[in-house]
Design a protein that fits this description.
- With 131 residues, this protein is an alpha+beta fold.
- Helices cover 46% and strands 25% of the residues.
- It is built from 5 helices and 5 strands, in the order E-H-E-H-E-H-E-E-H-H.
- Strand 4 and strand 5 form a beta hairpin.
- The mean pLDDT is 96.
Length: 131
């Protein structure tokens, strides 16, 4: 695992994991602003078959506002992406952007504070998914 993400294995199949993750995000105050079906896009644009892989662009409006107040350009690093993907062994991984690592690139105390608070929420989402 890299330093800019953390992940868990879902106890459910791919199709059941997506709404489970979405609901867990909602419980922590996040909405899903974007949904990118990477597998479908690669198939349509390049003819490449790959196992299911989706990117959910999660946003907590309160924290996004705080971060934008501290650093107006922070939008380039938002939203917090959450990947749901099927692994070669057909298990399902849920991979979370680590906001402390990503937002830490800004090196601004107000943004760092938001990153730590968002990480705590996303870690609770991860634990909820893990079951």
């Amino acid at each position: 695992m890299s330093s800019y993400v953390f992940s868990v294995t879902s106890p459910k199949d791919y199709e059941s994991t997506i709404p489970m993750v979405t609901e867990a995000l909602k419980q922590e105050g996040f909405g899903v602003l974007t949904t990118i079906d990477v597998a479908a896009t690669l198939k349509a644009k390049l003819g490449i078959e790959r196992k299911p892989y989706i990117i959910l662009g999660a946003c907590n409006p309160t924290f996004a506002h705080q971060a934008m107040e501290a650093e107006p350009d922070i939008g380039a690093l938002l939203p917090c992406n959450v990947v749901v993907r099927t692994e070669p062994d057909d298990s399902v991984s849920v991979v979370f952007m680590d906001p402390v690592s990503v937002l830490g690139m800004v090196n601004q105390p107000g943004v760092d504070k938001v990153g730590h608070e968002v990480r705590e929420k996303l870690m609770r989402v991860a634990e909820s998914v893990r079951g």
